[in-house]
Amino acid sequence: MSDYPAYAPSEEHELLRATVRELAEAKIAPFAAEVDEESRFPQEALDALVANGLHAVHVPESYGGAGADALATVIVIEEVARACGSSSLIPAVNKLGTVPVLLAGSRELKERYLGPVARGEAMFSYALSEADAGSDAAGMKTRAVRDGDAWVLNGAKMWITNAGVSEFYTVMAVTDPSAGARGISAFVVEKSDPGVSFGPKERKLGIKGSPTRQVIFEDTRIPADRIIGAEGTGFKTALATLDHTRITIAAQALGIAQGALDFALGYVRERRQFGKAIADFQGVQFMLADMAMRLEGARQLTYHAAIKSERAMGGEKVADLTLVSSACKALASDVAMDVTTDAVQLLGGYGYTREFPVERMMRDAKITQIYEGTNQIQRMVIARQLLK
Q: Is the pLDDT of residue 5 over 70?
């Protein structure tokens, strides 16, 4: 009765956290402001993560990966995000792009595409949303038409993270327009496939180091065996994927918030007003206490959800995975927005300048409330699960 593994990370998890934190502080954090200022891809982060095998830890050992569990993956993303939100999208999006293949792909598809990701030779993005199909993803227009031993894709995907940098893309497309959501299928598309192109980089509020672009398909012909799962199962796979990967967005939010809290703690100890450190003022202490309480509550829910995700990936039926993954994503991202805003407030005028990292963290936190399902959609999902 004394063993509660679901409620505490193991010694190995905590050792992993220390390792990633040390790496992030040494190799990623020094470039974070420059990456944001120049809106450039964080190549230094990618190089450091690949060199240390931390860019896609979730890939199973059978496909050349580290075989890390979902909680370990969360910790990696969280610790990278503490240093740089843009850089944390390297491990996060590698998981997002590959989970459909892991869930529904053929053995041959897994062997062909997971190995290069595990070795750091390629990244893997996820293409679901379109200009007129965001929250209503089933309203997508991108088409895939069977032509002999190939599929031909036409359409455009919007808001695709790391587009143009990733070599591989999980793409959802309509294969039967008369079947609604059941007429959507999933495919692996390569950047080098003929007819694949990319729109200009979006000019964004935050996560400026991670390119967000359209992915455009013009008579893109791919082999028929690049379909993920059976025809018509793509939307089901997309939803199942998000049950696992919303948790990684929660992890990103936790890391950004923790980075802001840690910086604010150091600042209030040093900043003096009225003859003493502002950390001595009760009003400041109450702000810090609220930030820490909310952050730790979100962390515990996220870790709890990660454990459920791991069990589900192992084949166990986890009835409340959808609920807890939506809940941790919504809670952690809301907390991240609150904590980073309070960190800016604690730094006062300095917090509003680019000389200090909390304004970047505040901007980076905002997207966690939006992508992989807005928090309004998450609340709808949670309510539906409760009212089943």
A: no
72-102 in b/e form (b: 16+ CB < 10 A) is: bbbbbbbbbbbbbbbbbbbbbbbbbbbbbbb
Q: How far, rounded to the nearest angstrom, does the alpha carbon of residue 351 sit from its chain's CA centroid? A: 26
- Mean pLDDT estimate for the chain: 97
The enclosing H or E element of 382 equals: helix 375-386
Helices 321-347 and 375-386: angle between axes, nearest 10 degrees: 140
The owner of tokens 């740089």 is 84
| Closest to 137 (Cα-Cα) out of 87, 89, 173, 99 | 173
What is d(CA 211, CA 165) in angstroms, rounded to the nearest whole number? Answer: 8
DSSP state of 167: S
The tokens of 213 are what?
């672009």
Percent of the chain with pLDDT over 90: 98
Measure the N-to-C terminal CA separation of the chain; round to a whole number of Å.
33
Per-residue pLDDT reduced to its tens digit, 206-230: 999 999 999 999 999 999 999 999 9
**102 and 73 in contact (C-beta within 8 Å)?**
no
pTM, full prediction: 0.97
Q: List, for residues 325-374, the tens digit of each pLDDT value.
A: 999 999 999 999 999 999 999 999 999 999 999 999 999 999 999 999 99
Position of tokens 């495919």?
187
The helix (H) or strand (E) run that includes residue 217 is strand 212-223
Q: Are 140 and 184 in contact (CB under 8 A)?
A: yes
78, 79, 231, 372: which is the annotated catalytic residue? 372
Neighbours of 182 (CB within 10 A): 16
Confidence of residue 4 (pLDDT cuts 50, 70, 90): low
CA distance 378 to 388: 15
Angle at 235 between CA 231 and CA 241, to 5 degrees: 115
Within its chain, how far is the Cα of 352 from the centroid? Answer: 26
DSSP E strands: which ranges in 118-183? 124-127, 143-147, 150-161, 168-174
372 part of the active site = yes
Burial of 273 per CB tally in 10 Å (0-12, 13-18, 19+):
exposed
Residue 377: left if φ>0, alpha if ψ -120 to 50, beta else—which one? alpha
